[in-house]
Design a protein that fits this description.
The chain is α+β, with helices and mostly antiparallel strands. The chain folds into 3 domains: 2-52 and 75-138 and 316-347; 141-191, Carbohydrate-binding module superfamily 5/12 (Seminal Fluid Protein  PDC-109 (Domain B), Ribbon), CATH 2.10.10; 210-312 and 350-356. The protein contains 8 helices and 16 strands. The strands form 4 sheets. Strands 1, 4, 12, 13, 14 and 15 form a 6-stranded mixed beta sheet that branches. The protein is globular. It starts with a helix and ends with a strand.
């Protein structure tokens, strides 16, 4: 058994040395938000990048040969996308995994599943789900202060707890001395939610700063969702609608849009052949083929509808750096440890080309 364990570890070490960058890139590229926001993906984000915008004012006028000075001006504005870095440490005991799961994973007639590939595939599946499911509401808190015993914390406060090196968010008001270890019910582990600002956080911050004005729709449900989305659509200037815009929203919102659509235009109104039932992007009726509804798994739990010009939400990573790889495999008494590191960031390039409702 000991020799077999060593062989498993050797296979894992060799496999990850050869395939680490491929695994990281496959993981990132397969994330739903990378695919949904593909027009805005930046794959070589090494340092801060300025997202410049030039606005040209009106300048057309009647011909007059005595005038030589220009009338229009160019106004430059910019926003910045900053790469942030995350990691995941792996601690795997090969025998534990193999004996528990491998027999179920074997192909019919196979004597042995290729262990190294199988083990790493499972690890990266979990890594992908953590990144994807927390993308929208990420909020950068890596600079949060250390927990202090004499401090009272309010719900939403984030601290770094040195006892276990984990970032925690208070879910209730604490009293002095209530720490994540003494009163765990009042604290949530948010390590996978504080790496950078996701689109949901950026949108909320810009609404607070009055740089984005949300359309007041109230809550969406299966009796009003189509009409509420049309309120957002109607708020968009006509000059912007011809860019064939995208509306990103959670699957539960998509389901409500579909249900209300079918009530208004399909079998719910005794009209056959017009029902929608899809988890794929679709053109919203009544928008002259100009608004595509794009279900977003990465917006799960949100009631927000986000309309953008394609590419306006930027997603940054780095494919040519010391990050986005897996470090050396370190053998332990019963298995191995390793760490995957990656770069991620998001930003809205142009605040004038995003339209949202008032639901968080």
């Amino acid at each position: 058994m000991a020799n077999e364990t060593t062989a498993n570890i050797d296979a894992i070490r060799g496999y990850i040395k050869k395939n680490d960058k491929k695994l990281i890139m496959q993981t990132l590229n397969s994330l739903d938000f990378f695919k949904d926001l593909s027009a805005g993906v930046m794959r070589n984000l090494l340092t801060d990048v300025h997202l410049n915008k030039m606005t040209v004012e009106a300048g057309v006028r009647p011909l007059n040969t005595t005038i030589e000075a220009e009338k229009s001006k160019r106004v430059w504005t910019r926003r910045t996308i900053t790469p942030c870095f995350g990691m995941k440490i792996f601690n795997v005991i090969p025998e534990e995994l193999r004996e528990t799961f491998m027999s179920e994973m074997m192909a019919p007639g196979a004597k042995r599943e290729p262990f190294a590939a199988w083990a790493w595939a499972r690890e990266f599946e979990k890594l992908a789900s953590e990144i994807n499911d927390n993308f929208y509401n990420q909020e950068y808190k890596a600079d949060a202060a250390a927990w202090a015993s004499g401090t009272v914390y309010n719900s939403g406060d984030v601290v770094f707890f040195a006892d276990d090196n984990i970032y925690y968010k208070a879910n209730a008001t604490t009293v002095a001395g209530e720490s994540p270890s003494t009163t765990p019910a009042k604290w949530d582990d948010v390590d996978n939610q504080v790496m950078y600002d996701g689109p949901g956080t950026i949108i909320a911050d810009e609404i607070t700063a009055t740089n984005i004005t949300p359309v007041v729709t109230g809550a969406l449900d299966n009796t009003n969702a189509y009409d509420k989305v049309m309120l957002v659509w109607d708020s968009i200037p006509e000059k912007d609608k011809n860019r064939k815009l995208e509306l990103h929203c959670a699957f539960v919102v998509v389901e409500d849009i579909i249900a209300h659509h079918n009530t208004k235009f399909g079998s719910g109104n005794s009209i056959g052949g017009y029902d929608l039932d899809t988890n794929k992007p679709f053109i919203l009726k009544g928008t002259a083929n100009r608004l595509t509804i794009k279900p977003a798994s990465w917006m799960a739990g949100s009631g927000r509808t986000v309309v953008i010009a394609p590419g306006n939400i930027k997603v940054g990573t780095n494919q040519n750096h010391e990050f986005n790889n897996v470090s050396k495999v370190v053998e332990t008494l019963h298995g191995y440890k390793s760490v995957a590191k990656f770069a991620l960031a998001s930003q809205i390039a142009d605040l004038e080309s995003i339209w949202v409702n008032d639901q968080a």
